[in-house]
C-alpha cells in the first residue's frame, strides 16, 4: 500500500492549491479528482462566466460607443464563438493547473476516491483499483447546485429545458426567453450576459431584494440598472412549478407564469458530503456541511476540510486560503482562518464589490456604526470612462475605534480595487492612518480615499 503524507480529495481551488503548497512544504502528496482539475470554479463557474461576461461587456461598449466619439456599425455578438472561446480559456487554465501539479511533484489520479476508514497506520483511501494510506486527509469535494422539489424542475433538467451552472455555459443556441430562478450571484451574472446578448430575461426571486446579503442600497442600484436594461424582476415571488415553455409562480397570492425556452435554476449550492465514504470516518456535519475549526480541522484527527464543503464561504478565493491554513497546520506553522475580510464580487455591468460588514450586520453586532457614501463621479477616471454612470462607494466604520468595518461599491470594475479595502479591514488600521496612504491618480479606487476623508 503506497503511503503519503497527504491525500487530497477534490481538485478544485481548495484542493489543487493546497496540494501544491503541501508539496512545496515537503509533504508527499496525492491529489484525487474524478472530473477535471480546477473544479466547479474553473470548469463551470468563475472562469466560464467571466469569459462570457467579458464578451458581453465588449458588445455593450461597441453598441454604445458613440457616447465616446466612436462609431461602430453592424456589431454582432456570436454566441457560438463566445462559447468556443470559453472552452479554449478553460482548457488553457486546466492544462496550467496540471502543469503546476507536475512541477510541484504532486501525484494526480483522474478517478473517484473512496474513504475506507482510519486505522492506527493512517487514513485509507481507495482510488481506482489501488488503496492508498496517508497521515493526513484534506476533503475538498466542493459543492453542487441545489435543485429544490419544485414540480417539473427535475423533469426539465432531464429534458434539457432546465439548466444549472453545469449546463448553461455550453448552450449552443442563445436563449430567446430566459427565466432565472434565483436572484443571487450566479443568477444575476447570467441574467447580465443573456440580457446583453439579446435574450428576454426574467428573474424570479423569493426575497424582496436581489444579490443576497449585499448591502441593500447597492443591490437596489444594481436592480435599477438592470431594469433600465430591460431585465424583468419578480421579487417576493414563489416558484410553484415548471412546465415546458413556462415557469409558474405566485405573486402576492395570485398565480402567474413567465414564458421561457430555457430556465436557469440558481437557487444556491450545497456541500458535497456523500458518495465518497465520508461516513466511514465519522466526520461531524453541521447543516449538511463539514464542521471545521480555525485551522480547518474536523472532529477526526488528521482529517481537514476546505472550500465549499465546509459551507462557510462558498468562494474560490476563500477556498484557496482555507487550503493554505490546513496545510500550514499540518506543517506545524501557526495559522488560522479568518472570515472578517473576504471580498465578494458580482461581475455584472456595472460590477458590485463588497467586503466586511454591511450597515445592517454591523449594527446587529453592536458596533457604534458610522456610514459615509461617495459618488464614483468623485473619480476623474470614472467620469472619463463611464458616460452617465451613477456608481457609489459606501464605507461602514466603527466610530468608537475609528476603523473601517466594510466597503461596498458599484460601478466601474471595483473588483480590481476591493482587495485594498480588504487589507484595511484585515489589518485593522486606524482611519487616520489610512488617510496617509497615497492612491495612484487618476484611478477609480481613489473614491475610497475621498470617502475616507469624509469621516471626521
Written account of the structure:
This protein has 456 residues and is an alpha/beta fold. The chain contains 14 helices and 24 strands. It has helices spanning 13-24, 39-44, 46-63, 79-104, 153-159, 165-168, 185-197, 216-228, 316-330, 359-364, 380-385, 418-427, 431-434, 446-452, and strands spanning 2-9, 29-32, 107-109, 113-119, 122-127, 130-139, 143-145, 162-163, 177-181, 200-205, 232-235, 237-243, 246-251, 254-259, 262-265, 269-271, 285-286, 289-290, 303-305, 344-346, 351-356, 369-375, 392-398, 403-411. A hairpin with a 2-residue loop joins strand 12 (237-243) and strand 13. Helix 3 (46-63) packs parallel to helix 7. The termini are far apart. The mean pLDDT is 97. Keywords: Cytoplasm, Disulfide bond, FAD, Flavoprotein, NAD, Nucleotide-binding, Oxidoreductase, Redox-active center.
Amino acid at each position: 500500500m503506497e503511503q503519503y503524507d497527504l491525500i487530497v480529495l477534490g481538485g478544485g481551488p481548495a484542493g489543487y492549491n493546497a496540494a501544491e503548497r503541501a508539496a512545496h512544504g515537503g509533504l508527499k502528496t496525492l491529489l484525487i479528482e474524478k472530473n477535471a482539475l480546477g473544479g466547479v470554479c474553473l470548469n463551470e463557474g468563475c472562469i466560464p462566466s467571466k469569459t462570457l461576461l467579458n464578451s458581453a461587456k465588449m458588445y455593450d461598449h461597441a453598441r454604445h460607443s458613440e457616447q465616446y466619439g466612436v462609431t461602430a456599425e453592424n456589431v454582432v455578438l456570436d454566441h457560438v464563438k463566445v462559447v468556443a472561446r470559453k472552452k479554449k480559456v478553460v482548457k488553457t487554465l486546466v492544462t496550467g493547473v496540471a502543469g503546476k501539479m507536475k512541477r510541484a511533484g504532486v501525484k494526480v489520479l483522474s478517478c473517484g476516491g473512496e474513504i475506507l476508514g482510519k486505522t492506527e497506520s493512517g487514513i485509507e483511501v481507495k482510488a481506482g483499483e489501488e488503496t492508498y494510506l496517508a497521515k493526513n486527509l484534506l476533503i475538498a469535494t466542493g459543492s453542487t447546485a441545489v435543485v429544490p422539489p419544485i414540480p417539473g424542475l427535475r423533469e426539465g433538467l432531464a429534458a434539457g429545458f432546465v439548466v444549472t451552472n453545469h449546463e448553461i455555459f455550453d448552450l449552443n443556441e442563445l436563449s430567446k426567453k430566459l427565466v432565472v430562478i434565483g436572484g443571487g450571484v450566479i443568477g444575476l451574472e447570467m441574467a447580465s450576459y443573456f440580457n446583453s446578448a439579446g435574450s428576454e430575461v426574467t428573474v424570479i426571486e423569493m426575497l424582496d431584494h436581489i444579490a443576497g446579503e449585499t448591502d441593500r442600497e447597492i443591490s437596489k442600484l444594481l436592480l435599477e440598472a438592470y431594469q433600465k436594461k430591460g431585465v424583468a424582476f419578480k421579487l417576493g415571488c414563489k416558484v410553484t412549478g415548471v412546465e415546458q415553455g413556462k415557469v409558474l409562480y405566485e405573486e402576492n397570492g395570485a398565480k402567474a407564469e413567465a414564458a421561457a425556452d430555457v430556465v436557469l435554476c440558481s437557487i444556491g449550492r450545497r456541500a458535497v458530503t456523500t458518495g465518497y465514504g465520508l461516513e466511514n470516518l465519522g466526520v461531524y456535519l453541521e447543516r449538511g456541511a463539514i464542521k471545521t475549526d480555525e485551522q480547518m480541522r474536523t472532529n477526526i484527527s488528521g482529517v481537514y476540510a476546505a472550500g465549499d464543503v465546509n459551507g462557510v464561504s462558498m468562494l474560490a478565493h476563500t477556498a484557496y486560503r482555507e487550503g493554505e491554513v490546513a496545510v500550514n497546520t499540518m506543517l506545524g506553522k501557526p495559522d488560522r482562518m479568518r472570515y472578517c475580510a473576504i471580498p465578494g464580487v458580482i461581475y455584472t455591468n456595472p460590477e458590485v464589490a463588497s467586503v466586511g460588514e454591511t450597515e445592517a450586520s454591523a449594527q446587529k453586532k453592536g458596533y457604534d456604526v458610522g456610514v459615509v457614501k461617495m459618488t464614483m463621479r468623485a473619480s476623474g477616471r470614472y467620469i472619463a470612462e463611464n458616460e452617465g454612470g451613477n456608481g457609489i462607494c459606501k464605507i461602514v466604520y466603527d466610530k468608537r475605534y475609528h476603523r473601517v468595518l466594510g466597503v461596498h461599491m458599484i460601478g466601474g470594475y471595483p473588483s480590481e480595487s476591493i482587495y485594498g479595502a480588504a487589507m484595511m479591514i484585515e489589518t485593522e488600521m486606524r482611519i487616520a492612518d489610512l488617510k496617509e496612504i497615497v492612491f495612484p491618480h487618476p484611478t477609480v479606487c481613489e473614491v475610497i480615499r475621498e470617502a475616507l476623508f469624509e469621516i471626521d
